[in-house]
Specification:
Layout (H helix, E strand, L loop, with lengths): L1 H8 L3 H16 L11 H13 L9 H24 L10 H4 L3 H25 L6 H17 L30 H13 L10 H24 L9 E6 L4 H4 L5 H13 L11 E3 L13 H10 L5 E10 L8 E9 L5 E6 L13 H6 L22 E2 L5 E6 L11 H5 L2 E6 L8 H17 L3 E5 L4 E4 L5 E5 L5 E6 L10 H23 L8
Parallel strand pairs: 1-2, 2-3, 7-8, 8-9
Antiparallel strand pairs: 1-12, 3-4, 4-5, 6-7, 9-10, 10-11
Helix pairs in contact: 1-3, 2-3, 2-4, 3-8, 4-6, 6-7, 7-8, 7-16, 8-9, 8-16
Subcellular location: Cell membrane
Keywords: Acyltransferase, Cell membrane, Lipoprotein, Membrane, Transferase, Transmembrane, Transmembrane helix
Pathway: Protein modification; lipoprotein biosynthesis (N-acyl transfer)
Length: 529
């Protein structure tokens, strides 16, 4: 270990940048669909040793002293995000004649920008760097701050937050019922980076012991919570419809009627094995391929297919009159439709995808000839001012999360804990059979553990699933599997902390790690006898 550390510490120039990039790329393999948990225990010690090797002259200015560390963080982040987000380019190939030019911006440009957050993480850590266990604490603080900022700056994009690597399966997800993702990010980096202490820093034994205790508590609490009895579920059977409609076909006006009938046919399919017929049918995001309120015959067809007492929840585009002389406003929405073909509830998407559903600085960028992927609707989509909880006939409530809203822990507020289930409808056909849909599902899965609330998830091409309040898969349909699956909606489970308490834990944890880093930098040796 010491020989390897020494070689990495002595790297310089291009070699240092390449190893930093490769370390970040390796860390990505801990995320879905690979889930190679051991990868982060190699990549983060490499990052520590790269930072150890940064040599500065005391007479240099602050920028020249800090820039080498920031560049290491950027290289690490660029490898991590390039390896984890390259699949975003698929969305620009659906209408390649219009958007292929933007492919490099999505595949390379976005990772390059996101890597700035990891440059900041290493920059913060370097300001507190020492030769002992404190540098591991400093790195944890740096990544904790960077990932927290990434969750909300510029509308936020916390995709593949580093803490998710510590939660690859339900056993290792249960800490999310106590801590928020921001805290898990910090503690995960501390544990991931701890092997760098072996033979290369003061206080190695106490640092490694602390990491081992954190890891054991993480696993032990998972075993404990998974052993708890799940409350009796309500007697409500849910059907997930996964039609697997190619995105190019969805955008073809000539295919709209056939797509609608395909959804209806899957809805009407008899239950397998003589099981109870579903009470609730859920279609994916934008599954109704036209403006439903402009097509009363479509509502009649839905009423013909639904049996007495059945309810359909379906993703659709909703149009709203904006006033005289103005084009309609369009919303990415969810409708609740009863067995008489009446719309009895609706909820609109709050957190839109920049450049996908709307164009930031629209007037300026339009003047440059740029448009959003949703440009077939004037002005793209509009965002709802607040999130509406869906109330179904009979009084059951669902907390709606449309598409990538499910990756934002902050989007799931206190009202989610009061709902009977989280409802996530999405259309990941834009990204093809890539890591994207698997990563999306994994992050949505964590919302159930955080809230103690089961999730109903319908995806056009997959992954559709019903997930219980512990993140355990009840039923599911794999990617590109066309069909339906029925299951009884699971019950809810209590969580140990609420959002406010988790926020306080985050700041306390960060403050404690900051104190450890500061004491270590002042020269106090953490030793064990």
């Amino acid at each position: 270990m010491e020989r390897l550390a020494g070689r990495i510490i002595l790297l310089s120039g291009a070699s240092r940048a390449i190893v930093g990039f490769l370390a970040g790329l390796l860390a990505m393999f801990a995320q879905p669909p690979f889930g190679i948990f051991a990868a982060v225990f190699v990549s983060f010690p490499m990052l520590v040793w790269l930072i150890d090797g940064v040599a500065t002259h005391p007479d240099e200015g602050a920028v020249r002293r800090l820039l080498p560390s920031a560049s290491i963080g950027w290289c690490f982040g660029f490898g991590y995000f390039l390896g984890g987000l390259w699949w975003l380019g698929n969305a620009f190939l659906v209408e390649a004649d219009l958007f292929a030019w933007a492919l490099p911006l999505a595949v390379v440009g976005l990772p390059a920008l996101l890597a700035l957050f990891y440059a900041l993480a290493v920059l913060i850590a370097r300001c507190l760097w020492s030769d002992g266990v404190g540098r591991i604490a400093a790195l944890a603080v740096g990544f904790g701050v960077a990932e927290w900022l990434r969750s909300f700056l510029f509308t936020g994009f916390p995709w593949n937050a580093i803490g998710y690597a510590a939660m690859p399966m339900p056993l290792m997800m249960q800490s999310a019922s106590v801590l928020n993702v921001a805290t898990i990010n910090m503690l995960a980096v501390f544990v991931f980076a701890a092997p760098a202490l072996i033979g290369t820093g003061k206080g190695a034994r106490i640092g490694l012991a602390a990491a081992a205790v954190l890891f054991a508590a993480h696993i032990g609490y998972g075993y404990y919570r998974l052993s708890l009895p799940v409350p009796p579920p309500p007697e409500r059977t849910v059907r997930l419809v996964q039609p697997v409609i190619d995105q190019a076909k969805k955008m073809d006006d000539r295919e709209r009627a056939a797509i609608f009938e395909e959804h209806l046919a899957l809805t009407a399919a008899p239950p397998q094995g003589g099981d109870k017929r579903p009470d609730l049918i859920v279609w994916p995001e934008t599954s109704i391929p036209f403006i439903l309120t402009d097509n009363p015959d479509a509502l009649s067809r839905i009423a013909e297919v639904l049996q007495e007492g059945q309810v359909l929840v379906a993703g659709a585009v909703r149009a709203e009159d904006a006033g005289a002389g103005l084009p309609p406003r369009y919303y990415n929405s969810i409708y609740v439709i009863d067995d008489r073909g009446q719309i009895v509830g609706a909820a609109d998407k709050v957190h839109l995808v920049p450049f996908g559903e709307y164009l930031p600085f629209e007037d300026m960028l339009n003047s440059w000839g740029l448009s959003s992927i949703a440009a077939n609707m004037p002005g793209g989509f509009s965002a709802a001012s607040s999130r509406s909880v869906l109330t179904l006939p009979g009084g059951r409530t669902f907390y709606p999360l449309i598409c990538y809203e499910a990756i934002f822990a902050e989007e799931v507020d206190g009202n989610a804990r009061l709902a009977d289930a989280l409802l996530n409808v999405t259309n990941d056909a834009w990204f093809g059979d890539t890591p994207g849909p698997r990563q999306h599902f994994h992050q949505a899965q964590l919302r159930t553990v955080e809230t103690g609330t089961p999730m109903i998830r319908a995806a056009n091409t997959g992954i559709s699933a019903i997930v219980d309040a512990r993140g355990v898969l009840v039923v599911g349909l794999g990617y590109n599997y066309k069909g339906v699956t029925d299951a009884i909606l699971p019950g809810k489970m209590p969580t140990m902390t609420d959002s406010a308490t988790r926020g306080r834990i985050f700041w306390f944890t960060g403050g404690f790690l900051l104190l450890v880093a500061a004491i270590s930098r002042r020269g106090f040796n953490f030793r064990t006898n």
